[in-house]
């Protein structure tokens, strides 16, 4: 299934081409950026981190919308590469954030990552996640991600996190016209489909388990 078609089902993740107040608020609370440099294998690194540690301010679907916009804009401006990895920095995450996850939104996003995202996803990494026993420090992460491309606050050398975040925000703000064109011209009109139009419920249902996410 094409990424364009899948995005038509992702109502929670659909881009609004205008950066409205809700989006600006999300930009204050969450950063998503594709870091400069690559892994040893030549993979680009999609880095995400909460800027605000207060769980009541966390809106999962808005954060995923921002992530999708960052990836779309990168693909438009940079093209393709050997692959991408996603690195979530859990520094400001607590169990209070878990209760604010949207189960259906999470299920749809995992489905989109597997079958619709137009990049070669090579892996997920989590750092500063001691309770989960993943990358408890940057020492083990360095085997996969060169530390020099990480923000200073993540034990890296690429510069202050806020400075890198502001740079990514400016890219989004400068690209509103492109997002408007993409929204207007790259969506599927299900009313033109031969036979019955398909909806998100047809694909995902209301209940059910998560689909297994496959990584190259």
From TrEMBL:
SUPFAM superfamilies linked: CRAL/TRIO domain
Highest taxon listed in the record's lineage: Eukaryota
GO molecular function, one term: phosphatidylinositol bisphosphate binding
Entry GO terms, CC: membrane
Stored CDD domains: SEC14
Residue span(s) of domain CRAL-TRIO: 33-131
Alphabetical list of InterPro entries matching this protein: CRAL-TRIO_dom (IPR001251), CRAL-TRIO_dom_sf (IPR036865)
Protein's recorded name: CRAL-TRIO domain-containing protein
Taxon lineage: Eukaryota, Metazoa, Ecdysozoa, Arthropoda, Hexapoda
